[in-house]
Amino acid sequence: MQRGDFYVLLAMLIYFIIVLTIGFIYTKRSNSSTREYFLGGRKVGPWFTALSAEASDMSGWLLMGLPGVAYFTGASDAMWTAIGLAIGTYLNWKLVARRLRKYSVVANDSITLPGFYSNRFHDTKNIVGTIAAVIILIFFCVYCGSCFVTCGKLFNSLFGWDYTVMMVFGALIVFLYTMIGGYLSVVATDFVQGCLMFCALVVVVVGSITMAGGIDNTVAFLSDIPGYLSMTSMAVPVADADGVQVVQNGQPLFEAEPSAYGLLTIISTMSWGLGYFGMPQVLVRFMGIRNEDEVKTSRRIAIVWVVISMFSAVMIGMIGRAIMPDQLLTQSAAESIFIVLAQVMLPAFACGLVVSGILAASMSSASSYLLITGSSVAENIFRGVFKKDATDNQVLIVSRITLACVLLFGIFVAWDENSVIFNVVSYAWAGLGASFGPLTLFSLYWRRTTKQGAIAGMVTGAAMVLIWHNLIKPMGGVFGIYELLPAFLCGCIAIVVVSLLTKEPEQSVLDEFDHYMDSAPTERSLDTVLEGETPVQ
């Protein structure tokens, strides 16, 4: 091992030790009850809530997937995606966060998202919660796989180590601290990881501008690539039969005519923002915040973090093309641009700290996916359907068994080192957003929503993602839009139509909805910290 590699590895090792230490710190507190393990006892403050929500949401996609898209095809796809996500982030915090915090308490103090859906409709048979838990299980296994891909690619790019071995190693680290520490360890590590991700992005984008000789030189170089800087067209790399971009005289080749990026494509790309309304890893943060009055503070922190981070990620990809125009010649390879730039511009130890931001991104997300999947299966399927008198200890055991199963399936998904993180994430994002986004909004805003409508909305949304992605989207043209948009709309229609065609909810459900709508801010007694404990700020 070279001396520089040693210092990179040392910095990353320090990061691993910090993450695992946090997990052990919260072990005793988290394992005191399922409420503590799955939701932190609703004692998490605004800073931890905001950064945990965004760090768990963005995953390695932010530091690898998004810069990779910008590097390979230019501004349009990456920028419109980022704009859609920024708008979606704001609207989710504005429209959903406070209401979900209040209603999840009113609805039998729900501690999981599937549990909230079942309690919202007084579903004593737990049909709604079971379907929601199954959907989470399916799509979060895919999501975890995308995070494990990030770990494997990181170590392979940095040290040339075997992708598969390092992918499995990263997955096991995430599994270990999630299993030990529960929600509080996940939130606390997410806070650290969110700070690290933010600093890493800012450092690399500033350094890359300096390396490129300033903004003017970068713009001059990129302007010569047809469509690269345009927001209404997209650069098209000239590729060989294996998908590798052709290089001639030291310059990568692009088609003379960029592909059009019209209004329909823009709307389709911005529809990424709709996914936020159905992201369990974000919604559960809303449920766990200490007090609903602190949502406004969290929203401001989250929006600033998201806007700066995504803008920096896109800039890193584009400036990276100007600095290293012919080094990353496939879409999969392009996702390493952040790592390559950090290696070139920073001292070894600083590089190790910065690229730990990628580990931070993937690990914070994977831990959330594992925990939410485990809680959904254990709480809503095991205790909700098969053993309603299960003790908290039995539920925690089933949750950890589920974590292990999801870990293994995620490793299976990530086994192919040529997986494109952006594509893997987009599929899972659509599935979760279309399944739960419409249901979350209608549950919080429409009194007349019925249990049958909720089931129809979830099933329709999930089914349409699968159908559109695999059967309709390949037809191209107007059908080539991102599957989240049509699936989300179909889910909304299904909820409205089925709810109107079925019997109005029972009076107890309507009374509870009215109580939630009219209730004053949650009393402090609901959030009282257990004696001898302190809230997570």
Description of the structure:
The chain is mainly alpha-helical and 537 residues long. It has one domain (3-517): Up-down Bundle (Sodium/glucose cotransporter). Helices cover 72% and strands 1% of the residues. It is built from 20 helices and four strands. It has helices at residues 3-25, 27-30, 34-39, 46-73, 75-106, 113-120, 127-159, 163-211, 215-223, 263-270, 280-288, 295-323, 331-334, 337-345, 348-386, 392-413, 421-445, 451-472, 484-501, 507-518, and strands spanning 233-234, 247-248, 251-252, 259-260. Strands 1-4 form a two-stranded antiparallel ribbon. Strands 2-3 form a two-stranded antiparallel sheet. β2 (247-248) and β3 (251-252) form a beta hairpin. The longest helix has 49 residues, at 163-211. The radius of gyration is 23 Å and the shape is globular. Residues 520-535 have low confidence and may be disordered.
Short characterization:
With 537 residues, the protein is mostly helical.
List keywords for this structure.
537 residues; mainly alpha; Sodium/glucose cotransporter; two-stranded antiparallel sheet; two-stranded antiparallel ribbon; 20 helices; 1% strand; globular; disordered C terminus
What's the number of domains? 1
Runs in which pLDDT lies below 50 for 5 or more consecutive residues are 520-535
* Overall radius of gyration: 23 Å
CATH architecture: Up-down Bundle
CATH class: Mainly Alpha
> How much helix is in the residues?
over 70%
Average pLDDT taken over every residue: 84
Question: What is the count of helical runs?
Answer: 20
CATH superfamily: Sodium/glucose cotransporter
- Spatial gap, N to C terminus: 41 Å
Topology as a string of helices (H) and strands (E)? HHHHHHHHHEEEEHHHHHHHHHHH
